[in-house]
Structure formats: C-alpha cells, structure tokens
Amino acid sequence: MNLFAEALAWLADPTKHEGANAISARLGEHLFYTAIAMLISAAIAIPIGYAIGHTGRGKQIAVALSGAARALPSLGLLTILTLLVGFAQAPVAATIVFVVLGVPAILAGAYAGVEAVDASVVDAARAMGMTEWQILLRVEAPIGLPLLIGGLRSATLQVVSTAVLASYVGLGGLGIYIQRGISLNTYEEMLGGALIIVALALALDIAFSLATWLAGRSASRSRHHATVRPAVAPTATTEGTP
Amino acid sequence: MTWLSGNLDLVLDLTLQHLWLSLIPIVAGFVIAVPLGQLAWRQQWLRGPMLSLVGLLYTIPSLALFVLLPPILGIGFLDRANLIIALTIYAVALMTRFASDAFSSVEVHVRQAAVAMGYDGWRRFWAVDLPLAGPVLLAGLRVVAVSTVSLVTVGVLVGIDSLGSLFMDGLQRNIPLEILAGIVMTAVTALVLDALLVLAGRALMPWARATSSRRGAGARGAAA
C-alpha cells in the first residue's frame, strides 16, 4: 500500500500540473481523442442502427460486426495502421481505430432501442397517420433512448480504454504515464497514471448511468401504454474489450 | 512474406503461449462466474449490487489494471499471474451477467416439476438448472473466450510475451507484415476456440439444436 501513497504524492506534486506534460494537458488529450472518435462513430452508427431497427433488415450484419470487433486486438490495429499511414499521421490512424471500435456498440444500442419498441405502439402511431419518419423520430427514438445511451456508454468506455494505448504511437494521452513509468521503472508514475485512468473511466461510467436513468424516466413518462423492456442499459457486456 | 518465412517458429511459439495465457482466465472465469450468477439469480436482492460491481470492474482499462494489480496482490509486475488474474477478473465480470441471465431463462414450471419429482438442491442444479441454462451460458462463454484472446495482446506492454509481442516488435522495426501476422493469428486463435466451444456445446447439449430458435432468442435477450 506504500506504493499507493507514493502514487498519490506523485499526483499531488505541483510540478506534475504545469507545462506541456501536465496531467490536465494529458487528460485533455485523452478526452479530445475520445470526443472526436465518439462524434464520428455516432454520426456513422446511429443512422444505420435506426435504419436497421426500423426496417428490421440487416440485423445479422450488425451482430456479425460486433462479433468481429470483439475479436480484433486494438493494439494490433493501432500499430499496423500507424505504420501504414506513417507516424506523422498517427492521429488519423488512432481515430480510425477508435471509430472502428466505437461503431459496433452504438449500432447495437441504436437498433436494439428501436427494435424493443412494441409493435402495437408502432402500429398505433401508423394508424394515427404518422409518416415513417415521424414514427422513427417521435416514437421509436425517444422510447429507445435508454438503450442507445447504453450503447454510447459501452463505446465511450471502449474508446477511453483504447486511447490509453495511444501513447505507444506517440500520441500522448493518459497512457503516457504508464508507458514512461514502465520504461523508466518509476512505479509511482505508472501507478499515478493508472489511478487517473481508472477515475476517468469510472466518472464517465457514472455519468452515463445517470443519463440512462434520466432517459428511462422521460421515456417511461412519454410512452403511455407502450410495453418496452425495462430501461436497463446494455452494459459493457454487450460490446467491446477493456 | 520474407519476414514470415524466417519467423514461422516464433509465430507458432507465441501462438501457443498466447493460447495458454487465454485458457486459464476463460476456464477460471467460467468456474467462478457460474456460482456467482446462480447466487444472483437465487437471491434477487443480490442481483443488482453484484451486477453493478462486475460492471464497474469491467470499465477499468486493461493496461491500468495490469499496473494496479501487482501492488494490491503483492506479485511481480512481470509475473504472468498478473496478466492471468487481470483477465480472469474481466472474464468473471462478463460471465456473471450471462450466468445470471442464463439461470433466469430456465422456465419456472420446469423447475417446479423437478421439485415435485423430488429433485432437491444439488441434484436439481446439476440435472435441471445447469443443462437448461446451458445454451445462454455457452453464448456468454463464447463472448468471454473471444474477448480474452484479444485482451492477452495488451500484456506485451507490461512485458508478458504473447502474439502482442509481434505488434510492438513490428512497430519498432517498421515491419507491418509482422503486426499483420499477429493480428491474423490472434483472430485465428479466437475463432478456433469459438468453434471448439460450439462443438462442445453440440456434444453436451444435443437438445439445444432442436429448439435453437427459441434458445437463440433467449441468448439474444441476454446479450441485450
């Protein structure tokens, strides 16, 4: 436990909070990569997921995709893409890897949310004269929101985990403390870095739990007689690797 | 292709090490998670807290866990036990939810019939609950197996050799083919394990194929 005290001292050291290598700067890089990757992944996955959920077609493709993504070693993908595009373009390689890992979970959340809406609710909406777009945007999307947020949560945690590896292709992020700690044999540094990474992952997880809970409440308020599966998020079990 | 032809022995050797490092967490994770899942199913009040706890464990990024475990457990940083224990934690975290869902998927009247016929405690678990939960357990085990094989590669960053060693060596020496060999062999290892699990499932649960559509629906429900 003495090592943890040293790690906390390392975290509290004022010199670790200034300059280019400041913890806040590395945290910022980490969050920046995650945010960019999540925006791109969501822009790709949500429309496709909604299309699959609404039409009921192409589900096998989505399932196969998430299976394949689970089998792909993220470190291998990151290193080979970096070599192929060159170290100068490493941010592009990393973003591609993050998006590849982020898309399946969001896709699954989007289609599962729409698919979980009771068919009688959709039929009722159709009978009321709603167009297919209105059904999707006003009925299926709001009711499926908790499951979509669950997918976004899995994807975010997956990307945050993988961004820890970004320092190995020269991109910084919070993984840099672990990488440097290992190569310089400074245990307090790698342990301090690991603690920040865990804190970040847990904080994001809690934030998403809260969002899921809020969305579940508003969905249950707006769905009237709809019978939907309970608003339990598809947790990390659905997708991805830590 | 020149790199591969000169290093076939290395690739095979690393594949075997990789397989070994994967098998222990997969088996240990299953053996630990099934009783946990059964407990969560029997004691409903435990289900929420237990699934939240394993969910939190699963959010810890792997490289961070490899760094945190040695001082907590008092083992060496480069010890293979470090990787094996970390991956077992992930396997348990994934599998417990599947196991809990699997036991929930056993129909109540079937269990009541078993009780009425005089099956008690252990005998009911082995003869009724476990076989009927089998298909969903198998679906979970397949997910655990594939993700464990993929996770083993990260161990190279804390100095534990596996197919992941080809990634870092290839990166440092600028040999994309070496990395590709590592990725392909990791995927092949995962696919082979997955196929073996499917075959084992067919051998152990021949009835599951007859009702596969219904079971498939159950497994899907568990995954969502």
If you had to describe this structure to a student in words, what would you say it looks like?
The complex is a heterodimer of chains A (242) and B (224). Mean pLDDT of chain A is 84; it is low at 225-241. Chain A contains 9 helices and no strands. In chain A, helix 6 (119-127) packs across helix 7. Chain A is mostly helical and 242 residues long. With 224 residues, chain B is mainly α. Chain B has 11 helices and no strands. Classes of the chains: A mainly alpha (242), B mainly alpha (224).
Please mark out the parts of chain B with pLDDT under 50 across 5 or more consecutive residues, or reply none: 212-224
Q: How would you state the average pLDDT of chain A, rounded?
A: 84
Provide the gyration radius of chain B in Å. 20 Å
The count of helical stretches of chain B stands at 11
Beta-strand percentage range of chain B: under 5%
How many extended strands of chain B?
0
Give the ordered list of helices and strands of chain A. Answer: HHHHHHHHH
Quaternary: heterodimer
Query: N- to C-terminal separation of chain B?
Result: 42 Å
The sequence of SSEs of chain B as H and E is HHHHHHHHHHH
The gyration radius over C-alpha positions of chain A equals 21 Å
Structural class of chain B: mainly alpha
Taken from the alpha-carbon principal axes, the silhouette of chain A is elongated
Mean pLDDT of chain B: 86
Describe the largest sheet of chain A. Answer: none
In short:
The complex is a heterodimer of chains A (242) and B (224). Chain A has 242 residues and is mainly alpha-helical.
Topology:
The complex is a heterodimer of chains A (242) and B (224).
Chain A: H1 2-12, H2 23-55, H3 59-71, H4 74-85, H5 90-115, H6 119-127, H7 132-163, H8 175-184, H9 187-222
Helix pairs in contact in A: 1-9, 2-5, 2-7, 3-5, 4-5, 5-7, 6-7, 7-9, 8-9
Chain B: H1 2-6, H2 8-42, H3 44-59, H4 62-73, H5 80-104, H6 108-116, H7 121-152, H8 164-173, H9 176-204, H10 207-210, H11 212-223
Helix pairs in contact in B: 2-3, 2-5, 2-7, 2-9, 3-5, 4-5, 5-7, 5-11, 7-9, 7-11, 8-9
